[in-house]
Design a protein that fits this description.
- This is Polysaccharide pyruvyl transferase family protein.
- It comes from Sandarakinorhabdus fusca.
- Pfam families: PS_pyruv_trans.
- Keywords: Transferase.
- With 326 residues, this protein is of the alpha/beta class.
- The protein has 2 domains: 106 residues, no CATH class; 185 residues, 3-Layer(aba) Sandwich (Rossmann fold).
- Strands 7-6-5-8-9 form a 5-stranded parallel β-sheet, sandwiched between helices. Strands 1-2-3-4 form a 4-stranded parallel β-sheet, sandwiched between helices.
- Helix 8 links the parallel strand 6 and strand 7.
- Helix 3 packs parallel to helix 4.
- The longest helix is centred in the C-terminal third of the chain and has 23 residues.
- The protein is globular, with a radius of gyration of 20 Å.
Amino acid sequence: MRVIDGRYMASPGGYLADVRAHDIMLDIGAGDSFADIYTDKRFAYIMATKAIPILAGTPLVLSPQTIGPFSRQPHAGMAAWACRKAKMVFARDPLSMDVLRKLAPTANARQVIDVAFALPFDRPVRPAGDPIRVGLNVSGLLMSGGYSGGSNDYGLGFDYPAMTRALITAFTAMPGVVLSLVPHVNAPDMPRDDDGAACDALKREFPQVERTPDFASPSAAKSTIAGLDFLVGARMHATIAAYSAGIPVVPISYSRKFEGLYGGLRYPWVVNAKGMDTKAAVAFVLDAFERRVQVAADIARGKPVIDAGLEDYTAALEAQFTAAAR
C-alpha cells in the first residue's frame, strides 16, 4: 500500500507510473473529501488523484462518495471537469446526485450507496446478563472545532464538546449501562483530527468510562461496534458500521453528507448539523436510546435501498472492467 504524499504525487516514478501500470482507476475520494469544505491542500490532493489518470489516459471511475459541496472557484470548475472526464461517477446519496447534476450535467452519473455497508464483520458473542453497552464515537475533529483552530468551523447549531460531555454524564449515571469511548479515525500525525487523542483526554476527565482500543482495520472497528446495544457517532463510517450491523445509532452531523446519506434511507434519527441546539441534541439522543427498539426497526426498513445500491454499483463496475479489458 502506497502512502500518498507530496513526494509520491510529484515523482514521475510515483503516482503517475502506478496509474499508467493499471487498466482502470477507482477513486473513492476518501468518501467525503471531494468538496471544498476542508483545506485547500486537501482539495489539491483530491483533485490531483483524479487529474493525473485523466491526463494519462487511464479510465477513471469515481466510486461511491459525497459530491460537494462546492461553493467557490476554482474548486467548482475543477470538480466539474473531473466529473465530465471520468468514465462514471457514483454518488452515494440523493443530495450528492443533485449537486452532480448541476455541477456536471453531462457526466455519466449514477446514484448508489456507500460501499461501507458491505464491509464484512464478526459479531461478538455477548454473555448472559451482560450490561447495556453504549458506544460514544468521539470525533477528534469536532472536539478541536475543525482544522483551522476555530471553535466551530462548520457552523454547528450545537456545541459538540459540551454535548459530548453531557452525554457522558447522562449515560454514566444510568444503572446497568456501560459507556465506551470509541475512536474511529486514528491520525496521530494530525492531532486535531485524531479520535484517539480526544478519547484519551475524555478518559482522563471521566475515568469511569471505558476506552475502546484503537482499531487495526475497518472490519475490526465494525466488529466491535456490532457488539454494542447503541451508538452515538460523529464519524460517518462509524455510524454506517452500526447501521449496517443493525445496531441502533444516532449520527451526529457536521456536514450535509450525513443528511444526504441518511435522508436517502429515510432514517430520522440524525442530529442535524444546524437544526438543533445543544440541549435539544442531547435530549434527542437520550430519547433515541430509550426508543432503541423503534430505532432498530427504522434501520431494517432501509435494507432494500442498501441492497439495491450495492447491486447496481457491482453491476456497473463489472461493465467498466469488461470495457477496460478490451
